[in-house]
Amino acid sequence: MVYVSEYKLPHKLTAPHLRLGLHAMDIHKEVVNRKMILTSVDPVARFQYHAEKLTASAITQTYHYMIESGLGYGLLTTGEAIVFLNIDWDEPETLYYHLAGPGPEVLAHPNNIHTCTAVGQYLAFTLMALGPPGGRQEIGQEERLRATENLKTWPEDF
């Protein structure tokens, strides 16, 4: 297996949720243990709250599958948006991501359509995950267990 791939329904996890919910953060501190009571007074803050919670929940699930399978690459897609994920096994508690929206990206870059389409981005990601010939890193059970021991858990399910 080269990478984990997970699909979420686009009406449950929308592209606006992903755009607003994905940013550098300490998920455990800023989402899981957030001390916030929602009110209907501020709909923008409420949408931000739900976007971060939905996005973090979905990404965390894919991240868990990546750790369990010992893979450094994974992706989450809704069909409208793709989140490409990467774990540096020297620092497995940090998850790197790239959010791609192939539809709008193709329209925004008409001279580079081939690199902006979903097919082009999947191909580039797959080649990155494969790595150079003979250079793919195998993550053993001991390293996966070591990584898991240092990670915080979240009982939330998407």
Tell me the number of structural domains: 1
Largest sheet: 4 strands, mixed
What would the average pLDDT be, to the nearest integer?
A: 88
| DSSP summary, beta strand count | 4
Class derived from helix and strand content: alpha+beta
Stretches with pLDDT under 50, minimum 5 residues: none
Strand order of the largest sheet: 1-2-3-4
| β-strand amount | 5-15%
Span between termini? 24 Å
User: What global shape is seen?
Assistant: flat
Helix and strand pattern: EHHHEEEHHHH
What distinguishing features does this structure have?
alpha+beta, four-stranded mixed β-sheet, 7 helices
Can you describe what's shown?
This protein has one domain. The chain starts with a strand and ends in a 9-residue tail after the last helix. The protein has 158 residues and is α+β, with helices and mostly antiparallel strands. Helices cover 46% and strands 13% of the residues. It contains 7 helices and 4 strands, in the order βαααβββαααα. It has a 4-stranded mixed beta sheet with strand order 1-2-3-4, with helices on both faces.
